[in-house]
Design brief:
Blueprint lengths: L3 E7 L6 H9 L6 E7 L16 E5 L5 H12 L4 E5 L3 E3 L3 H11 L5 E8 L6 E3 L2 E3 L5 E3 L14 E3 L6 E5 H6 L12 H11 L4 E11 L11 H18 L5 H21 L3 H13 L1 H6 L1 H4 L5 H8 L6 H4 L9
Parallel strand pairs: 1-2, 1-4, 2-3, 6-12
Antiparallel strand pairs: 4-11, 5-12, 6-7, 6-11, 8-9, 10-12
């Protein structure tokens, strides 16, 4: 059995997938398999004959979404670890070795994030782990900042960005994986929050480096698709995962943050998908409120939330890295 199963979910990824696979072919760590899932790409998807020997191709008859397709890959995986990798993320040769090394050094941290650099300029950060704020906002830590501000040692973070992340497979499956109702966007934030509330921890391994384009299959971070799913799924995560003791503080923050984002997207010409996402989020709110029981374990949820989540008043303005030294 391989130690790691690398899962790649592709959708109209012909422009970037060959480069992604080429980077995996040059990994110094060799004990891995590749599970490539094509979500019914209109362009026909990958050419199976061109794939490496350690790769398996699964062709879906319909686009099941990023969340469901990764769950599908996790169910098929044979490795103890699953490494999720976007087709527009290009790993340095030491990427897998550094992720596994971090996992071995810190066995109590079973979510491990990569240091993501902008593909067009690797002196700029794409992110050093995800940050979640009590207002319900989330961001990739340090996105757009100089790469030099990134941690130089393993550090505890809220959760990994699923564009290039390592998870313990049993933990991932036991948590139910990504919430497939999300389809795409915010599913990694939701999973990290649920796992934190169950006592799991995450770290960033800053020497596990990828270059990342970002949203290559969905039209970009400001596309109608991305804006719609971001608004809807952000609300669902806030409803499902915010502990009751935090709600009196968090609800006003969430309302203010949502209004600010609506104003920003409207000014940019993206108000319609933002309002539509919020409306659909509210329509589904009852279902996610009822899911709170399974998402919020009674014991220590408040303490775990306080450890993992940012309560800083200024953090959403600067969207920096939120890391802590490892215990």
């Amino acid at each position: 059995m391989p130690a790691v199963s690398v899962i790649i979910v592709a959708y109209q990824s012909a422009d970037c997938l060959p480069r992604c696979l080429s980077a995996l072919a040059h990994q110094s760590f060799r004990d891995f398999e590749i599970i490539l899932i094509d979500n019914a790409s209109p362009d026909g998807g990958p050419d199976e004959s061109a794939l490496p020997d350690n790769a398996r191709l699964i062709r879906n008859a319909e686009n099941r979404g990023f969340a469901a397709a990764n769950n599908q890959g996790a169910a098929e995986a044979r490795g103890r670890w699953i490494a999720l990798l976007n087709p527009d993320a290009f790993a340095r040769p030491s990427w897998l070795a550094e992720l596994i090394g971090a996992a071995e050094r810190h066995p109590d941290h079973r979510m491990i994030g990569s240091l993501q650099l902008m593909d067009e300029d690797d002196d700029v950060l794409d992110g050093a782990g995800d940050v979640y704020h009590a207002s319900g906002l989330a961001w990739r830590g340090g996105h757009g900042d100089p790469a030099g501000i990134a941690p130089i040692r393993d550090a505890e973070i809220f959760g990994p960005c699923a564009a290039a992340a390592l998870y313990d497979r049993e933990m991932f499956l036991a948590a139910g994986g990504f919430d497939e109702r999300y389809f795409c966007y915010f599913e990694d934030v939701d999973l990290a929050l649920r796992l934190n509330l169950k006592g799991e921890r995450a770290l960033v391994a800053p020497r596990a480096v990828v270059r990342h384009v970002g949203s290559a299959s969905s039209g970009g971070r400001r596309s109608d698709f991305a804006v719609y799913h971001g608004f809807r799924n952000r609300l669902w995560t806030f409803i499902k995962c915010t502990p009751a003791l935090v709600l009196p503080l968090a609800v006003p923050w969430h309302l203010a943050a949502t209004l600010a984002l609506l104003a920003i997207h409207t000014a940019r010409g993206g108000g319609k998908p933002a309002f539509r996402g919020l409306w659909d989020g509210l329509r589904g709110a009852g279902e996610f409120w009822r899911a709170r029981k399974s998402a919020l374990p009674a014991e220590d949820a408040f303490r775990a939330y306080g450890r993992a989540v940012s309560f800083s008043l200024t953090a959403p303005l600067f969207r920096g890295i939120h890391e802590k030294p490892l215990d």
